[in-house]
Design goal:
alpha+beta, 4-stranded antiparallel beta sheet, 13% strand, 6 strands, Dna Ligase, domain 1, two-stranded antiparallel sheet, 2 domains
């Protein structure tokens, strides 16, 4: 670098640097050439503290423009507990509430299959949910609605079979009489 001297001419001067070594001791002043040599020898790296002599401002070696090419950039910081940076995901699509109710009614109808009311409720809610999902493709829940319909149908068939067996058993007992004549 050059600066004006008192006679109107220029005089050359060299920037000098101070370094904080791995032993936390201050070294220097040294020239830019010596800094480059120390980096090549492995005595300094991108995280080494350096300052222009007399500036009082310590920086990492990689942050000084004249030495940035010698040291790789700092790695991205790691934040514990935070998800990795990624493009924002698409917003979650809302589920149709009737689909969940259909599945719940279908599950509840299985132990109560002697009374087919819950079976019918499950089937009707499932059909309504599928209809609404078909009209609004932004909604999810098609699988929940289908499962509710299937469980409702199974429970309804079990109720019908149970009622038929009960009526047949009641009819047989009346034709034979109380003491099986």
């Amino acid at each position: 670098m050059k600066e004006l001297d008192g006679t109107g001419g220029f005089r050359s001067f060299t920037l000098m640097y101070k370094i904080i070594g791995a032993d936390q001791k201050e070294y220097g002043p040294i020239t830019a050439g010596q800094v480059r040599e120390w980096v090549a020898e492995g005595r300094l790296n991108g995280q080494s503290k350096i300052q222009v002599d007399g500036s009082g401002q310590w920086m990492q070696l990689r942050d000084m423009p004249e030495f940035a090419a010698l040291a790789p950039p700092a790695p991205p910081s790691i934040r514990l507990g935070a998800p990795p940076a990624s493009p924002s995901p698409a917003p979650a699509r809302p589920a149709n509430p009737l689909a969940g109710w259909a599945l719940g009614a279908g599950i509840a109808s299985l132990p109560c299959c002697a009374m087919p009311v819950l079976s019918l409720v499950s089937i009707v809610l499932g059909m309504m949910a599928l209809s609404q999902i078909r009209l609004n493709p932004n909604q999810t829940g098609r699988g929940l609605a289908a499962a509710g319909i299937v469980l409702g149908c199974i429970s309804l068939v079990m109720a019908i079979i149970g009622w038929v067996i009960w009526f047949l058993a009641a009819g047989v007992s009346q034709t034979r009489g109380p003491f099986f004549n």
